[in-house]
Each structure stands twice: as structure tokens, then as C-alpha cells.
């Protein structure tokens, strides 16, 4: 278990100095000669102090925490024989010295190099006492795990204890000689300032301590630090008193970030922003970087700061921030590295090494070992300008902020003021540096294929400014960037991902919604035109694209780049989250087992009080208190209490749940403890969950990052699908199959690698050509901001003059010859006929495209020659897609038609035979099948959306939830728009902005099982019931699921909130398949009442007029809130009854009506709630085979009905019933698969979701 316990503040304490035999020799020589030269001695490890410092009966302590890791030994180097004059005095100490030949060493800590690092400049023996000095170390093992050390050097007189060798015959004239000692405190966490403060407190004791008592003093000091737990990630800091200081131990901001307990603003004091950017650029490119300073302590702090500025990119190369004087050979390593040297070695290193980036911290310069300038590519200028401007707003000097305040008379008060100031400054620095990294790598996500883990590096480089491409090319080749890519492909939701998502521009959001080919929108054209400077030279490609080359002001040859090239710099106001400081009890005076246990028990009591006070206030803070109490209970062998605390994390914050520790705790339970746990429901569930998780096969996370490669062999259909999906132009499998048919040769059907390469090349060249096209501003004014030019012909003769025919996703227009002007030919919805024709020219006839429209230009004809048939195919497909989109109120039809048209263009461009048009026609899906898909859609249908648009195949819409927006919102960061929550398969939830129906979150993962139900609460929460028996809770502000309710034993089938409850916290009821019903307090997330309903299966739950109505399959049961059964509706028995179970029901209490539907019956039954023996009436549903779901909206009942099966498809209808007249008022054709879910949006709209054959959502207007 010890391996999984978070380590305490102290991992080990090491004392380093010269051996006393050597010091005695030096002292005797000094007395004899009287020389006063400073001597350099070889340092050695004198003492290693590591936990545990108290012993306990072995039966318990061995299982709990032998923070003692398995010890190994390091043998001291054999000392040189002392001169004969000292032999006698040495011999008396031989027995004592022999016992200390082997020194116990903690696991994972290598002490071989530690003496040199504790004395990087050498161990000095001086004739005068020097001031104490501190410096900082970082140790990295072969697996990349880091430990951190803080070293205090102090000088002690040699005569203090060498005089005892004379057995009391001390000289009356003692020589003054001082030797340096180092006290190194090692921790797993970078708590540099905290450990420095602790050593400063120890220093007070050491100044008056006899040498014979030194080890005991240091041991008592180390023992106290082992009692300090490390706080979990979040906003809870710990404070402890180590006389005379109150020391605050900060926590990590989140589990992905390191703790920041060093002066993060030091680099800003040492360097100008331009030099900071130079160093960061070198680190991003993994150069060989060496920091220099005359102060050893500065080296590690500045190096650590720069590595923190790179977050979330993690340095993957050797890292030695302090090199001792005997380690300079490390600088000859051929690989990239970060190292630190004393400034006195600057000239030597510069002369003997090549291609080093030499950073002089003391004078703030950056140079190379070959020259005074750095020749590496700079960070992109747009991101650099934003960073420099942000730096000007930093308040870097504490004294300036304190000018208006009274002087502090208490040191701890002054330290607290400085801590708060530093906390705010560090927060601002973190935001500024994170923004820099986001601006540099913002568009990486646009070139990732998450399903196939592919990064399109070539396309990413082409999208960069030409002047920035060398920088990005070098960065993309580094191990650091490769690790960053793994996190992005794993969709890690860290600070980078959150900032990148929250700062996306409207242009970027629009682009990510368009599948397939990337084209610049008119909005991008306008933004680029405002920010670009007209240049005299025009690209050759641009010259071939536009008919008007004379208007230089309307054209720019600059490449269409991503939005990071123009970065606005608004005010950056992100206040830090409030921090809670929890004070630990005073350390025990004596470090015995009983006193340590008393300390832990007192700490548990204080944490219990903190838990009680935070119960209904702050769930995140409550989780941290539970975590700490669980950790301390573990240390006290109170396993059941520890498991109970950790189980409580599920209801407060699952992100800090210690999975491995809990598993070890469960495994270590004794039989009697396990029996007690089975009697406690929450622990019984936890034990079952741990057992289930342990039985699951271990699945390693896929960390592969692929680079798209063109195939080298003939492709069958499956391989072709994989290649196209990795490429990223099309995800839909059905469309890829049609493309395969278009490109494949005779039986057996395969696609040759040469043809695939031609297809890929043509597609990319078309994309690249579109990126270089700039339209005149007079043309842009006539187009919508989201429109893109997808097809542009060569200059041709038309019935309305000479020009170029252009196609966007909405219309066709003509760029006329001469002065470029805009002539709209038609919008696709206004087309009446499209066909190819021929126009006479001299003695021949030229193929042409003829379009009949209902607009101002009734007839348009263009002599497109060889391109006429291709344009005819593309325009027909776009026209058919537009008709389908308008008819079905589904904009995705138009998107799919555009993809088909572009694929046609690429097929014709790569198939250089007479069969090219025939091959391309296989992609004309909508033009061919629009009549087969003809469906009468009522005006009630307003819109359709496809929640599976990011997936290769559609998925079933299992549940829908609408959460209303807020007219006024006090939280400035909150989103006031209403939202639509969509539950797809395998625990995937998609969120839409219900005002614009645009996707906000394409994936929120809640387990891996199917979602059965969802419910919204006023506390900005969404509760989700899953088949894995867990209720997941999503915070609607952060869009993150960090709470779970695990009290159910079977799949959760229903959630309902009691809107009649007048209490401040809403009462929630949940039910599970086994008939269990739980009543929850939504604020404390505790179960107030539990009861069971005797039934075979409990499928859903409603609350009406203070009564619970339960759908039990073959019956409907009314219950009181205490679980007492009131009424029960069952199927009437009889031989003619063919109905097996109810599928859904609706209660209208004011009418005394209960409406029930069945999946295998075309009748709707009406029951009187006062007499449930027989149905009061029956309503026949036309052309319906059964009811799948029901919903009451205003005074109407909306039904999702299955249509009678047609060969190859199953149509479904939305039926509206009037409960007053008992008549069907509307029957609306809805989906091409059965309806799985219905949802009401404030009684103004009804949303219906279909099964996986279609997987779409229809939005209906309630009239």
C-alpha cells in the first residue's frame, strides 16, 4: 500500500559534509603550520534520515506505510590513511566508524552524486564563519520521475568536537577553523519555498546545538515534516507552525499541473519579454540550453519557471539544473538538454562547446557558444506581440503594492501579505504564459483525426505563415511536441484545452463545423483584408484564379492563414479562485508512536468539523476535506473510515478519487472488517465496484500518434475506408463506399495506390488553390460571411458576358471579365432545371451548361467546354441537396451534397479516362434518390440536427434534455443561452446551444454504458442515469462531470424532480430497474428515503400532484412519497389481449386522466385515475404499429409512433392527440427509424430523437 500512498512533505533528509577523520587531520595540520588557505575537501553523506521515525507493532505497521521504502546500501568511499600523528586518535573511533560504513538509502533516491550537488562549488574549510546559503536541486530518474531537494549550507567550527579527541585535554588557545555542512531535504513535490522556510527554522536550532546533538535535532525536524500531508489538487492549502514561522503549503491547481511554490516571476525580473520569448523558442525547439548565474539558487528556480511556462508541453530531454564543478563533461552530450552552470565557467564552456544556447541570468542575455546572437527561428510574431503587451500589465514588485499600507509589526502577518500578493501575481503569469502557448498551438486540433489518432503535420505547416514555417517545422519534430500531441488526441481536458475552447473565435468555430475540404470563408477574407498589407508581387496561382488583375487594392498575395496570425488583445481579467487555508494541529513535543497517533486523531477531529461546516456550501472544498481525512484514517489503520471518506468523494469530486489506494485498502481488509463493510451500504457498493474493476482486463491507453501516409499497395474496401477516414475528408462510411465504387476497377474491386495518390494530390491542390484566392471587396459584400468558394471555372463565355463561374455552398455567381464585378446567377433553391447543351461557334458546337431559374436571370448558359458535364453533375447534386434540406428542414443534407460534389470534382480530376464522368456520377446520391426519399413534411417541423455528425456512423438518440437559459445572470462567466443535451451510445453526451442549434460540446463522457435518462436542476446541474447503475452529475458551467451517485445497485431508469417542494434544495427521486426508489436532497447529495416497489422491472418515474407514478412494464403504479402503494393499473386479462406491456404513459391530474401506450398496439388507452379497472376509452392511431414514447405539452399529448415496416426502412410518425376531444389532431412524418425519445422545450417546441439507422433530432413547433 505504501507505494500508492501520496508521500508526505518529506521524503528524506540527508546531511552531507566532510568526514570527521579528515577534519581532524586538517585541524591538526592547521595547528601545526598555521596556514590560512581555504581548503577543498571531498564531501560525503554523513546521515540519511527517512520515515518512519516511530515504530509500531509489526502486524499493522508493515501493511500500512513503511514509508520506508525497501532500503538499499551505499558504501562510503574508503578514506585515505591518516598520517601517523593521528593514528592513535583515529583508532579509538574505529569501532564507531565501522558501524556507519553502510548507510540506509531510500528507494528511488541515488546518493552517489548528491554530495557533489550539495557542494557544487566544493566543500570549503575556512578560517571565518560564512553566511548560510540555500540552493535547489531536481533529481530525475530513468523513467522521468522527479524528486526535488532544498539544500542549506552552513558553517560550524571544527574545534567544537575535535577537542574531545584529546579526552578533555583541551588547549586554552583554540584555533578558529570552520567547515561547511549541507542539510538537504528531499520531496516528491517542488515545494522549494516551503522547505526553505523549514530549513530556516531548523537553522535557529543548529546555531546553538552541540555537534553531538546535531543528528537528534535533525531527526526531530525531519519527523515533524513527515506528519505534514500533501494537499490534493484544488483550492485547499495547508498551514503548519514550525517555530517561529507559520508555513503555508500550497496545492496544485489541478491534477494536470505541478505545484507552484517558487518565485514564478523571477524570469520577468531577470529578462526582458523579448529575451523570455527567445528562451522559450529554444526550449520548444529542443535546443541544448545552459543557464549561467553566479548564484546557485537562481539556476534551478529560473529553469523550473521556464519549464512551467511551457505547460502543458512537458520537457522530455535530460534536465540537470545544477552542474557541480566536476560535472561539466555533461555539456558534451549530443542530445538536447537543459543544464545550469556557475557563471565562472561561462568562458570555458563557450570555448569548448558548439551550438549551445547560453542564457546569462545575471545580465539577462541570450547568446550561443559561437556568437553573441541566437539564430534559431523566433516564436510567431502575432503570439509574441500579444505576450509582450500582456507582460506590461504585470505588477512585479511587492513593495509598490504595499506603499499605501501600514508597516507590519508581525513577521507572520507580513509573510501572509506577501503570500497573497504572490498568489495573485503567479495566477496572472500562468494565464499570460498559457495564452502564449494557446496562441502558438491553437490550430493543432483542427488537423487532428481523433478516431484514427492521426496528425496531419504537412497540412498544419502549409496553413502557417511562410515566415513561421521553419519554427513550426522544428517544433513538430521534437519529443516535447509529440507528447503534447498524445494529450490532445486523448482529449485531455487540461488548462490548455479549456482556454483554447473558451477563446475560440467565431471564424474558428465556423470552420470546425464544416466537414471535409477546408476553404476560407468570406468572414476570413474580410478579416485578412483588414490586417494585411497589399504587396506588389502576386502569386502565379492567384493570377490564374481571378479575371481582374488590375485592381491591386482588391487583391493580396498573402496566404490564407489560421486565425492565430491576427490575435486581438482584449483585457485579460481572470480572477484567481478563492483559496481556503486549513491549519494543521501543532506538532507533538515528543515523536513517539502514541504522540503521533494523538496528533492524527486531533487532525481527524479538526477535519470532521471542517467537513460539517462545508457540507452545504462548497462541494469542491468538501471533497478536499474528505480526501485528507481518508488519508489520515489510512495512516491510523482505520480502513473502513478511510474507505467511507473516499467513497464520499464520488458525491463531491471524483477527479481526486485515489483509485489505486482504495484498491489496496480493500485488498488489505481483514475478514471482520470485510464483514462490517458488507453491512454498510455505501461500503458494500464500493467493495463491489473495486472487485468489478479488478476483474476487468487491463486496457492500456493508446498513445500512438500516426502520420498520414499514402498507401503502397492496392486497397480493398475496408482498407480504403480506413485511409479516407485517416485522411479526414469524409467520416461517413456510406459516402466512402460510394467513393470506393467510383474509383475501383473491375472485379475484385480494389483501388490502386497510384490512383489513390492522384486523388489525394488533386484534392490537396484544390484546397491549396482555394487558400490563395482573394476575392475583390465588391464581390465579398454580396456574399454571406460563412460562404466559401468551392469551385471556380476558367474564364469562359456566358450568356451574360465573359467571366468565371463560381460555386459556393449557397449559390452560383459570375466574376465578370474586365473590372471584376459580382453577378448572381442563382441560389440553388431557385433552380428549376439543369442540363448540358451545346452552343454554335463557327463550324463546331461547344458543350455548355444551361440553367433555368426562377430568379431574375431566367436562363443562364456558360460555354464550359470539357467541364460542362462535371459542372452539370455538381450543380444537380447541390440543387437536389438544397431541395432535400428545405423539404426535411435538415441542413446536413446540403453539407452532404457539397461533399459529394467536391468528391465528384476530385474523381474527374484524377481519373484520366473517358469513364471519369461515369465514375463521378456514382457519387450523385441526392440527385438520384431525392424522389425515393420524398416525404411530406408539415410546417410544424422547424429544423433537424445530427448529433452524430462527428462520428463515422449515426448513433441512437437514447435521451433528450432541454435546460432553459437565464434572462439575467449574475455570473458573468455563465452561459445564458438554453441548451439541448443529447445522450448517444456508450455514455457519450453532446450539448447544443438551443438558441442557434450549434454544437457546444461534441463529447462529454459519462461512463461507458448507455444513458437511460437525464434531468436538469436549478443548481446548474444535469443528472444523468446510466445502465451502469451510477447517476452522473455534470456542472453546466464547466461542462465537466466530477460527481457520481453510486447508491443504486441496478441500472438507473428514471429521474424526476419534485417541483412542488418549497424547500431551498430541490428533492429528487430516482429509480432503478430492480424497483428501488431513492429520494435525494439535491444540495447535500444524500439519500433521505429509500423504498422498493415489488415489480419485475421499473422502467420510468413521474411525479404528479405530489404522487409518484411508476412504469413497471406490465403495470402502472401510483405511490405516495413514502412508498405506500395507492393505485395500480394492469392489463385487462382475456384471451383476446395481445398486448404484452406498456411502453409509456402520461398523467393529466386536473382531468383525472391516465393515458397509456404500447409498443405493439396501434391504440392509445385512456383511464380514469379514480377507477383503473378498465380503460375509459381507446383512441385508434392511424398508420401506426405502436407507441414508443409519450409526452404532455400544454393541453396536448405528443406520441412517438412506429410506422408499419416498409421493405428496407421503418418510418415513424409524431402523433398529436387532443385529450379533450379524444381525437388525433396531427400525424406528422418524422424519421426514417423509430423514435426513441421526446423532449419539450418550454412548451414551445418538441424535440424527437430517432434510432441509429437515422440518428437525428427533429424540432417541432407546438401550436
Describe the structure in your own words:
It is a single chain. The protein is built from 36 helices and 54 strands. The chain is α+β, with helices and mostly antiparallel strands and 1263 residues long. The chain starts with 11 loop residues before the first strand and ends with a strand.
Compile the SSE list and pairings:
Layout: E1 12-17, H1 20-33, E2 39-41, E3 44-49, H2 58-64, E4 72-75, H3 87-91, H4 94-99, E5 102-105, H5 114-118, E6 123-126, E7 133-140, E8 146-157, H6 159-162, E9 178-187, H7 192-206, H8 214-225, E10 236-242, E11 245-249, H9 266-270, H10 273-284, E12 288-293, H11 296-309, E13 319-320, E14 337-342, H12 346-352, E15 357-360, E16 365-368, H13 381-391, H14 398-401, H15 411-441, E17 448-449, E18 454-455, H16 457-462, H17 469-476, H18 479-489, H19 495-502, H20 506-512, H21 522-531, H22 540-545, E19 580-583, H23 593-613, H24 619-635, H25 639-652, H26 659-667, H27 671-678, H28 681-695, H29 717-727, H30 733-743, H31 753-772, H32 777-780, E20 791-798, E21 801-807, E22 811-816, E23 822-827, E24 831-841, E25 844-853, E26 859-862, H33 868-888, H34 892-910, H35 916-921, H36 925-929, E27 941-945, E28 959-963, E29 979-983, E30 988-993, E31 998-1005, E32 1011-1017, E33 1021-1026, E34 1031-1035, E35 1040-1045, E36 1052-1058, E37 1067-1072, E38 1076-1081, E39 1086-1092, E40 1100-1104, E41 1107-1111, E42 1115-1119, E43 1125-1130, E44 1144-1148, ...
Parallel strand pairs: 10-19, 12-14, 12-15, 13-14
Antiparallel strand pairs: 1-3, 1-9, 2-6, 4-5, 6-9, 7-8, 8-9, 10-11, 15-16, 17-18, 20-21, 21-22, 22-23, 24-25, 25-26, 27-54, 28-29, 29-30, 30-31, 32-33, 33-34, 34-35, 36-37, 37-38, 38-39, 40-41, 41-42, 42-43, 44-45, 45-46, 46-47, 48-49, 49-50, 50-51, 52-53, 53-54
Helix pairs in contact: 13-15, 15-19, 23-24, 24-25, 29-30, 31-34, 33-34
Amino acid at each position: 500500500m505504501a507505494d500508492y500512498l501520496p508521500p508526505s512533505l518529506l521524503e528524506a533528509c540527508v546531511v552531507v559534509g566532510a568526514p570527521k577523520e579528515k577534519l581532524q587531520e586538517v585541524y591538526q595540520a592547521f595547528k601545526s603550520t598555521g596556514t590560512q588557505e581555504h581548503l577543498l575537501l571531498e564531501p560525503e553523506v554523513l546521515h540519511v534520515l527517512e520515515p518512519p521515525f516511530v515504530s509500531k507493532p509489526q502486524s499493522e505497521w508493515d501493511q500500512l506505510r513503511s514509508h520506508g521504502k525497501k532500503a538499499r546500501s551505499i558504501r562510503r568511499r574508503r578514506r585515505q590513511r591518516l598520517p601517523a600523528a593521528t593514528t592513535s586518535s583515529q583508532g579509538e573511533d574505529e569501532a564507531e566508524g565501522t558501524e556507519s560504513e553502510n548507510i540506509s538509502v531510500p528507494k528511488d533516491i541515488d546518493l552517489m552524486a548528491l554530495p557533489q550537488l550539495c557542494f557544487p562549488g566544493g566543500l570549503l574549510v575556512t578560517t571565518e564563519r560564512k553566511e548560510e546559503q540555500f540552493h535547489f536541486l531536481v533529481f530525475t530518474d530513468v523513467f522521468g520521475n522527479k524528486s526535488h531537494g532544498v539544500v542549506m549550507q552552513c558553517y560550524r567550527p571544527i574545534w567544537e568536537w575535535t577537542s574531545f579527541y584529546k579526552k578533555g585535554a583541551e588547549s586554552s588557545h583554540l584555533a578558529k577553523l570552520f567547515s561547511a555542512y549541507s542539510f538537504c531535504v528531499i520531496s516528491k513535490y517542488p515545494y522549494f519555498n516551503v522547505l526553505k522556510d523549514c530549513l530556516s527554522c531548523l537553522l535557529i536550532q543548529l546555531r546553538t546545538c552541540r555537534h553531538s546533538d546535531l543528528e537528534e535535532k535533525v531527526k526531530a525536524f525531519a519527523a515533524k515534516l513527515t506528519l505534514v500531508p500533501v494537499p490534493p489538487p484544488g483550492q485547499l492549502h495547508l498551514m503548519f507552525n514550525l517555530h517561529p514561522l507559520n508555513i503555508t503549503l500550497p496545492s496544485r491547481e489541478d491534477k494536470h499541473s505541478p505545484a507552484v511554490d517558487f518565485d514564478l516571476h523571477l524570469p520577468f525580473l531577470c529578462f526582458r519579454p523579448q529575451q523570455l520569448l527567445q528562451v522559450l523558442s529554444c526550449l520548444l525547439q529542443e535546443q541544448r540550453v545552459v543557464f549561467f548565474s553566479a548564484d546557485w539558487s537562481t539556476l534551478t528556480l529560473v529553469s523550473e519557471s521556464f519549464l512551467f511556462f511551457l505547460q502543458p508541453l512537458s520537457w522530455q530531454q535530460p534536465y540537470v539544473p545544477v552542474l557541480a564543478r566536476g560535472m561539466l563533461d555533461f555539456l558534451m552530450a549530443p542530445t538536447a538538454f537543459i543544464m545550469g552552470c556557475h557563471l565562472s565557467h561561462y568562458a570555458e564552456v563557450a570555448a569548448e562547446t558548439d551550438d549551445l544556447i547560453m542564457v546569462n541570468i545575471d545580465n539577462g542575455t541570450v547568446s550561443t557558444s559561437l556568437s553573441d546572437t541566437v539564430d534559431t527561428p523566433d516564436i510567431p510574431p502575432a503570439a509574441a506581440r500579444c505576450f509582450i503587451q500582456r507582460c506590461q500589465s504585470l505588477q512585479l514588485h511587492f513593495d509598490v503594492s504595499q506603499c499605501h499600507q501600514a508597516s507590519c509589526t508581525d513577521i507572520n502577518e507580513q509573510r501572509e501579505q506577501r503570500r497573497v500578493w504572490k498568489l495573485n501575481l503567479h495566477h496572472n503569469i500562468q494565464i499570460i504564459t498559457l495564452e502564449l502557448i494557446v496562441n502558438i498551438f491553437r490550430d493543432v486540433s483542427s488537423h487532428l483525426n481523433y478516431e484514427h489518432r492521426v496528425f496531419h503535420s504537412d497540412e498544419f505547416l502549409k496553413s502557417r505563415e511562410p515566415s513561421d514555417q521553419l519554427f513550426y517545422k522544428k517544433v513538430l519534430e521534437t519529443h516535447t511536441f509529440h507528447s503534447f500531441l498524445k494529450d490532445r488526441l486523448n482529449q485531455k481536458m487540461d488548462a490548455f484545452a479549456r482556454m483554447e475552447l473558451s477563446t475560440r473565435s467565431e471564424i474558428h468555430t465556423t470552420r470546425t463545423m464544416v466537414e471535409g475540404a477546408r476553404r476560407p470563408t468570406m468572414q476570413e477574407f474580410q478579416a485578412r483584408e483588414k490586417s494585411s498589407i497589399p504587396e506588389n508581387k502576386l502569386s502565379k496561382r492567384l493570377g490564374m484564379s481571378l479575371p481582374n488583375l488590375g485592381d491591386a487594392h482588391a487583391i493580396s498575395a498573402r496566404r490564407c492563414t489560421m486565425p492565430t496570425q491576427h490575435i486581438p488583445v482584449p483585457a485579460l481579467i481572470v480572477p484567481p479562485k478563492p483559496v481556503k487555508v486549513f491549519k494543521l494541529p501543532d506538532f507533538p513535543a515528543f515523536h513517539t508512536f502514541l504522540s503521533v497517533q494523538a496528533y492524527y486523531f486531533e487532525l481527524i477531529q479538526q477535519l470532521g468539523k471542517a467537513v460539517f461546516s462545508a457540507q452545504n456550501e462548497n462541494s469542491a472544498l468538501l471533497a478536499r476535506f474528505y480526501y485528507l481525512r481518508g488519508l489520515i484514517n489510512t495512516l491510523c489503520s482505520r480502513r473502513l473510515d478511510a474507505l467511507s471518506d473516499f467513497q464520499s468523494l464520488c458525491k463531491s469530486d471524483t477527479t481526486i478519487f485515489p483509485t489505486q489506494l482504495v484498491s489496496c485498502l480493500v485488498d488489505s481488509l481483514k475478514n471482520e472488517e470485510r464483514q462490517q463493510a458488507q453491512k454498510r451500504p455505501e461500503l458494500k457498493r464500493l467493495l463491489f465496484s473495486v472487485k468489478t474493476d479488478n476483474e476487468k482486463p487491463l486496457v492500456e491507453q493508446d498513445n500512438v500518434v500516426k502520420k498520414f501516409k499514402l498507401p503502397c499497395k492496392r486497397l480493398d474496401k475496408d482498407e480504403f475506408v480506413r485511409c479516407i477516414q485517416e485522411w479526414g475528408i469524409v467520416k461517413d462510411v456510406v459516402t466512402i463506399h460510394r467513393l470506393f465504387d467510383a474509383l475501383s476497377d473491375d472485379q475484385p474491386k480494389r483501388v490502386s495506390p497510384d490512383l489513390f495518390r492522384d486523388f489525394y494530390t488533386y484534392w490537396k491542390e484544390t484546397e491549396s488553390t482555394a487558400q490563395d484566392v482573394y476575392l475583390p471587396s465588391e464581390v465579398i459584400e454580396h456574399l454571406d460571411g460563412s460562404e466559401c468558394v468551392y469551385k471556380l471555372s476558367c474564364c469562359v463565355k456566358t450568356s451574360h458576358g465573359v467571366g468565371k463561374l463560381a460555386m459556393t455552398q449557397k449559390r452560383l455567381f459570375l466574376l465578370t471579365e474586365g473590372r471584376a464585378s459580382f453577378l448572381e446567377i442563382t441560389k440553388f433553391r431557385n433552380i428549376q432545371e439543369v442540363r448540358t447543351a451545346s452552343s454554335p461557334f463557327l463550324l463546331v458546337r461547344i458543350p455548355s451548361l444551361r440553367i433555368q431559374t426562377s430568379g431574375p436571370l431566367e436562363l443562364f448558359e456558360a460555354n464550359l467546354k470539357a467541364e460542362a458535364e462535371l459542372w452539370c453533375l455538381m450543380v444537380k447534386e447541390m440543387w437536389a441537396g438544397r431541395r432535400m434540406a428545405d423539404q426535411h428542414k435538415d441542413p446536413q443534407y446540403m453539407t452532404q451534397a457539397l461533399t459529394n460534389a467536391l468528391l465528384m470534382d476530385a474523381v474527374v480530376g484524377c481519373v484520366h479516362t473517358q469513364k471519369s464522368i461515369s465514375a463521378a456520377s456514382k457519387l450523385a446520391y441526392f440527385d438520384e434518390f431525392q424522389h425515393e426519399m420524398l416525404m411530406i413534411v408539415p410546417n410544424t417541423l422547424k429544423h433537424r440536427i445530427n448529433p452524430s455528425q462527428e462520428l463515422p456512423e449515426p448513433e441512437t438518440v437514447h435521451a433528450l434534455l432541454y435546460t432553459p437559459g437565464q434572462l439575467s445572470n449574475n455570473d458573468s462567466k455563465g452561459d445564458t443561452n438554453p441548451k439541448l443535451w443529447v445522450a448517444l451510445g456508450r455514455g457519450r453526451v453532446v450539448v447544443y446551444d438551443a438558441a442557434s442549434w450549434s454544437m457546444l460540446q461534441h463529447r462529454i463522457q459519462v461512463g461507458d454504458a448507455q444513458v437511460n435518462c437525464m434531468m436538469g436542476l436549478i443548481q446548474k446541474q444535469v443528472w444523468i442515469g446510466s445502465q451502469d447503475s451510477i447517476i452522473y452529475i455534470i456542472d453546466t458551467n464547466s461542462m465537466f462531470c466530477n460527481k457520481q451517485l453510486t447508491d443504486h445497485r441496478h441500472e438507473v431508469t428514471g429521474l424526476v424532480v419534485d417541483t412542488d417542494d418549497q424547500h431551498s434544495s430541490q428533492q429528487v427521486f430516482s429509480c432503478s430497474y430492480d424497483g428501488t426508489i431513492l429520494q435525494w436532497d439535491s444540495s447535500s447529495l444524500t439519500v433521505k428515503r429509500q423504498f422498493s416497489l415489488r415489480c419485475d422491472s421499473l422502467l420510468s418515474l413521474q411525479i404528479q400532484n405530489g404522487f409518484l407514478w411508476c412504469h413497471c412494464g406490465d403495470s402502472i403504479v401510483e405511490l405516495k412519497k413514502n412508498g405506500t402503494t395507492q393505485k395500480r393499473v394492469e392489463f385487462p386479462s382475456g384471451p383476446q389481449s395481445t398486448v404484452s406491456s406498456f411502453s409509456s404513459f402520461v398523467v393529466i391530474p386536473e382531468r383525472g386522466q391516465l393515458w397509456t401506450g404500447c409498443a405493439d398496439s396501434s391504440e392509445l388507452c385512456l383511464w380514469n385515475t379514480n377507477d383503473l379497472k378498465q380503460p375509459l376509452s381507446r383512441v385508434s392511431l392511424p398508420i401506426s404499429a405502436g407507441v414508443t414514447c409519450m409526452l404532455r405539452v400544454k393541453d396536448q399529448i405528443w406520441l412517438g409512433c412506429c410506422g408499419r415496416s416498409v421493405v428496407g426502412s421503418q418510418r415513424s410518425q409524431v402523433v398529436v392527440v387532443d385529450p379533450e376531444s379524444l381525437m388525433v389532431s396531427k400525424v406528422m412524418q418524422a424519421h426514417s427509424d423509430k423514435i426513441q425519445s421526446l423532449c419539450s422545450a418550454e412548451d414551445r417546441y418538441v424535440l424527437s430523437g430517432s434510432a441509429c439507422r437515422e440518428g437525428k433530432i427533429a424540432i417541432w413547433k407546438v401550436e
